[in-house]
Amino acid sequence: MVLHHTRFIVSSLSASKKFYLEALAPLGYKEYWEETTQVGLTSEKGGPDLWLGAVKEGGDGPTKGLHLAFKAESRGVVDAFYDAALYVFHHDSLDRV
Question: What is the spatial distance between Cα 78 and Cα 84, in angstroms, rounded to a whole number?
Fold first, then answer.
């Protein structure tokens, strides 16, 4: 069985969307769908496989302790992803995702 998609809750949807779109760009991720309370990201045409959900009043808080692993075509892509994630994390004035 193959994992179809995953969703996790973030403290700032706009900051998280910016971070993950920039960090995952080397892996081919793009925005697929956006609503007021969630954003779907995808690296394929089949639909979103990574969902970011906003914290809802009275609902669950941000997801903690989540481990995500992405498959990359080469070590160069892994390095580009790592560099992009570090850059956006250290250079943008984002609320921490």
Answer: 10
pTM of the model: 0.76
pLDDT of 94: 54
**Domain map of the chain by residue range?**
6-56+66-91
Backbone angles phi, psi at 54, to 5 degrees: -80, 150
Residue 96 pLDDT > 70, yes or no? no
Q: Dihedrals φ, ψ of 66, to 5°?
A: -85, 135
Which CATH number is 6-56+66-91 given?
3.10.180.10
Residue 34 bridge partners (DSSP): 39
Task: Map residue 40 onto helix, strand or coil.
Answer: strand
